[in-house]
Amino acid sequence: MSLSDDTALNLVGMVYEAALDEHKWPIFLDAFARAVGGCSAMLRSADWQAGKAGFVASIGYDPAWQAAYCNHFVKLDYLTPVLNQFLLGEVKTSDQVFSMSEQRKTEFYNDYFLPQDKVHAVGSLLARDGDHTLLFGAQRGKRAGAFGEEQARLMGILAPHVTRAVQVHRKLSSAAVEKDWALGTLDQLRMGVILTNRSGAPLFVNRAAEQLLGSGQGINSHQSRLALPNLAETARLYQLISDAAQGAPGTNRGGDMRIALPNGESLHCLVMPIPLEFSARLDVALASGCVALFISKPSGLRLSPQRLATLYELSPAEARLAAKLSALRNMEQAADELCITVHTARSQLKSIFAKTGAQSQAELLMLLATGTLANCRDDTS
After folding, report:
1. Range of 234's domain?
2. Which of 77, 82, 236, 242 has the most CB atoms at less than 10 Å from its CB?
3. What's the Cα-to-Cα distance from 340 to each of 199, 303, 336, 362, rounded to whole Å?
4. How many Cβ atoms from other residues are within 10 Å of residue 20's Cβ?
5. Helix, strand, coil percentages in the chain from 3-state DSSP, rounded to 5
6. Helices (DSSP H) in 38-131: which residue ranges?
């Protein structure tokens, strides 16, 4: 079977398409299997010593047989440990590693290869990390005969490209995970966080900020841009965003402002630049990084009594009082809302002091306002 250079070039192109989109690995493997006359092909990771394996991508395999290999047959596979002795990228056929007469004596051949009619294989070891390996392989049935030099040559051409493509794919996947971790962390903050470009168009809004935007008070979104209650405040906000977009972390670009609320209270807003490295992970092209808005409401802190009780080992009643004090900052009002006497509240407060280490009500409120729970969301509170 003669394989043209065009076939190899087309397959190389498909390899790098798969590097950028993991859903295209089966497309490449299917094209490769057809090119070499195989009935199946796969990228399989394995740790032969630990008896563990997993299919990164495959075509032509019944899922039940894949599971059987990962759960049982990986420990009986006589090819994987022998392949580990060869150079990375070196191509071997199963017939070169073991004679057919030797293979027929094994449980692996008779109970795994033979029932699937995958008695001939060609493979290349792409990566090795200790006992962990990544194998690129193809298989075909008894009637098709053993793989020949042309099929092995094509795999040899493709092997280094598949190796690089897997490396690229892993780096992209790692970057995606880091992005999800970073944005997921911001999503857990009680403080509102909005990431924008220099035009003030939100690129990311955490859940706390979503509530602020959804309320329509103080700050909202209009025609995909941020807007404040009056034009002067909006102009001030966009000036800070513009300044921050032109600056860099560690400079004085950006700044602080207050956003007036209809009830006489206000929001505090900090605008600051974010490194280009972070904006790159958002999959947006920004000339000078993106901008972060951190928005908080100084009053009305709502802490979870349950989490306060766990953190400071408070009784349920003490935790409820501490949570009320953090929100109201007034003993009498807190006692009234909890339907207890001020005397009872003061008695509970002494116990709270002893458990938290606070020496006064002011110190306790400072502790609660600056502690971990003050910064983290609690959906039950």
Report:
1. 189-296
2. 77
3. 52, 19, 6, 21
4. 11
5. 50, 20, 30
6. 63-71, 79-83, 94-97, 100-103, 107-108, 114-116
Phi, psi dihedrals of residue 123, rounded to the nearest 5° = -150, 160
pLDDT in tens, 309-354: 988 999 999 999 998 988 877 889 999 999 999 999 999 999 999 9
| CB-CB contact of 263 with 256 (8 Å) | no
CB 219 within 8 A of CB 202: no
**What one-character DSSP code corresponds to residue 377?**
-
Cα–Cα nearest to 112, from 84, 78, 89 = 78
Q: Say if residue 253 is in the same domain as residue 344.
A: no
Strands 40-47, 52-59: pairing kind = antiparallel
Task: Specify the amino acid at residue 364.
Answer: L
Are 47 and 167 part of one and the same domain? Answer: yes
Q: pLDDT means per 10 residues in the chain (381 residues)?
A: 75 90 92 95 86 89 92 86 81 87 90 93 88 90 92 92 86 66 76 85 86 77 83 90 72 79 83 66 51 79 84 92 85 92 93 92 83 66 41
CATH classification of the domain holding 53: 3.30.450.40
Q: Is the dihedral of CA 319, 320, 325, 328 positive or negative?
A: positive
Is the same domain home to 13 and 153? yes
Position 183 in a domain: no
Element housing 171 (H / E):
helix 149-187
Same domain, 355 and 245: no
- Cα–Cα distances in angstroms (integers) from residue 15 to residues 93, 271, 296, 357, in the given order: 22, 43, 48, 62
Asked whether residue 381 is assigned to any structural domain, the reply reads: no
61-92 as b/e: b if 16+ CB within 10 A: beeeebebbbeebbeebbbbeebeeeeebebb
3-state secondary structure of 239: helix
Count of structural domains, the chain: 3
Element spanning 208, H or E: helix 207-215
Supply the pTM of this predicted model. Answer: 0.53
Among the residues of 216-360, which ranges form H helices?
231-246, 276-280, 305-312, 316-328, 331-338, 342-356
**161 and 25 in a common domain:** yes
Look at the block and give the residue holding tokens 């795994």.
Answer: 112
The answer to whether residues 193 and 252 belong to one domain is yes
Residues 244 and 333 reside in one and the same domain = no
Do the Cβ atoms of 270 and 189 come closer than 8 Å? no
Distance of CA 355 to the CA centre of its chain: 38
